Amino acid sequence: MVKEFRNGKEKALFCAEVAREKKALRPVLLELKGLSTVTDYFLICSGRSDRQVQAIAREIEEKMAERGERPMGIEGMAEGRWVLLDYDDLVIHIFQEPVREYYDLEGLWVDAPRVPLPEGHGEEGD
Fold it and tell me: 48 Cβ partners below 8 Å, 6+ apart?
């Protein structure tokens, strides 16, 4: 039996690790508690192509399903430029780099604390 997540932060860190295993670029975890009524955490990362963005999203969806977690919604999977996975207390944004720069969610949520990710996150070519 697979253990359930204790909280949203544990869920977010798990998804960040799954994304990293699929070579996601520049993962950032923002804590939105007290800043947003929509969700507690944003996980933001990038892929180099539509295929990589889709692969990261599919892998997260699959690994979360193994833990009994199903997304409330998925947007953008067909195009692969910006995929959004909504897990209620965690919203995951997987971008192609130019789209990420254009929407600049990190800049929009500049007041949100960044949650440190375990060593190895964010390294290109990891």
Answer: 25, 96, 97
